[in-house]
Please model this.
Amino acid sequence: MGQGKPFETVPGGSVTTPLGFRAGGLHCGLKKTDRNDLGAIVCEVPAVAAAVYTTNQVQAAPLKVTREGLEKEGRLRAVLVNSGNANACTGEAGEADAREMQETFARALGVPPHQVAVASTGVIGERLRMDRVRSGIAAMPEKLRADAEGAEAFCQAILTTDLVKKTVCVKLDMDGKTVHVAGAAKGSGMIHPNMATMLGFITTDAAVGGEALRSLLRQAVDVTFNMITVDGDTSTNDMVVAMASGLAGNDELGPDHPDWSRFAAAFTHVCEELAKAIARDGEGATKLIEVRVEGAASDDDARAIAKTVIGSSLVKAAMFGADANWGRIIAAVGRAGRPIDPAKVDISIGPIRVLEQSRPVPFDEDEALAYLKGGTIRIDVNLNIGTGRAVGWGCDLTYDYVRINAAYRT
Amino acid sequence: MGQGKPFETVPGGSVTTPLGFRAGGLHCGLKKTDRNDLGAIVCEVPAVAAAVYTTNQVQAAPLKVTREGLEKEGRLRAVLVNSGNANACTGEAGEADAREMQETFARALGVPPHQVAVASTGVIGERLRMDRVRSGIAAMPEKLRADAEGAEAFCQAILTTDLVKKTVCVKLDMDGKTVHVAGAAKGSGMIHPNMATMLGFITTDAAVGGEALRSLLRQAVDVTFNMITVDGDTSTNDMVVAMASGLAGNDELGPDHPDWSRFAAAFTHVCEELAKAIARDGEGATKLIEVRVEGAASDDDARAIAKTVIGSSLVKAAMFGADANWGRIIAAVGRAGRPIDPAKVDISIGPIRVLEQSRPVPFDEDEALAYLKGGTIRIDVNLNIGTGRAVGWGCDLTYDYVRINAAYRT
Model:
């Protein structure tokens, strides 16, 4: 790795690229199709682990079970994920099912139950078919592989109807050792299940302190996964889990390590790439939209304003229509409920300045149309009142979004 | 009017039904079509008046001019409204234009400028063609009529591309006199302009105190116009204006009048009917959705939760698809950021109970489908933790919403 290059992408890398991880997936019968519906990532040592959960007050049973397990020791040997059924709104029976998933897989691996995280995505309000889950868990250990094929089978098991596999891997040098950080995610694109659940799984072979990993994951999620908006709805099942095997052999990373900020940047990059992939693959989406807000009174204000713009159905529909409709953008800025000076807003759509100090700037409509027909649209908003900044990602609102979400469940 | 009946609807009634009001509309050339684009309501006496304005921090010029005028005396002789151009994001020149509209119409009527309110709806960021506005204002006085035809011409001038005329009139007995309360509104349904601006105009011939009218209007708007959500976007131009001529001859109404609550109910009913008509006529909408939340910790919590449900794109698309998808409803309840007990939520869709104490209730899918294919869908949510309650209205999310809003501006 060249001097000054903080990290580099590993082409074809996946969650099994970091040392110590195997992954796999199989079809156990929770989905009506024959696609994989049960997947696992397993670490050969008890990985230092951290997780963040949906802010929705209605949380699915597996989140509770995973949280309780992680609180015991902060280490994980495995995550087990099913698709086809969210195990949400299933009461105490659903919680018992999630716990049984955890315990059964732990027994199959010969590890303590609290070192197994469980996650689910799919239909809400129906009990898991535990007979099928049990037989899937029994078959899982021999499916686990340390190569790209294992990671691929895992990705298929969590993808449901996502269009695009979301996986990324980077490597960087730490204390003379090569360290990898990789991730896999599922996002919106679920037709049959009820929710656009977002699941993210990060693996790394770096040695990282537990508290350091927890705070890094939270900070990274705040500026990446939490800054994507497909339709403003938050699932009952959202969860991001990180596991660090420590097998790269570097000195334990934490805020006091001289290269901590470089590791944090690589880790955040992995989260950002997954988040952008989720946004781009939003239900029915044809474009990725990136909204950058600067000049806000605070970063928090900038975040709220970016999310309001990216979440505006009017803005999203205009982007689908390749319409440089800055009126909708400034209207969204104005209703975000955060301080602005209504006379001082600058807006650019890609390279085209459309509003300066809240006054329209004449622009070439053909140039705007050509830019807006691209697959990635960037909107820059400068509030010119402070130094707060944020970036958010979303997608356009299309006929297909309506078609997908108006489809009857059965 | 029968004893005990608080008020009754006047079939065919309109803003000119209350004594003292004339209205009219004409085409002055702000729209490309030959439809009316300038309208006015005029009162033969200085009416006690009140207004509420958009909460968007970016506010169009006419709102500022109207607010300043009303603050002087709290009385209005007229409102003048143009469509085709919102006069928003037009800077000081736009403010001068709004002021010229006010002053020119005041001169034409022979009244003080501060007794004229102005409102605009249409494209953002373009200057008004004032030559056309001036010639329209000059022609307006002879268009004013005290009958239904005048009200109709006014409605056409504010409707732009709304599909349905939104007008309502009720009458009730006060101190042995017949008092009328009427309203007209425009809502979403604007294809060419950029914003789904909402404008409401209430006329009454009741004698009402100024402070009483102001607080009544604010309270009524809070539970009606402010409880509709078409797409969550708030226009820079939203405004509701109420004028009371006092010509019915009743004793001045205020909180101390024995029949105040009955008048307030009639006034609120007028606002509610207009709000529901706006929601039902949302861009591309095929259904009115009414969300009732009860059992919340406070009314304010109930309002926030109702608006989150009614604003959920996933819920809206499910209603379009006649899908009794309660998973999306409880997920929206859970992410509203207000206190709930995730284990205690009841949900009904129309007459069909689908969730009880957060557990799914088996229901007949055919019965649900038949109900959801109707034109009005009611969703009841009981949080079972308090006595707070609220009602909100919205519409479904359809292919036509996307088509309308993805359409290029020109």
Summary: Residues 8-280 of chain A form a domain with the L-amino peptidase D-ALA esterase/amidase fold (CATH 3.60.70.12). Chain A touches chain B through 66 residues (CB under 8 Å). Chain A has two domains: 8-280, 288-406.
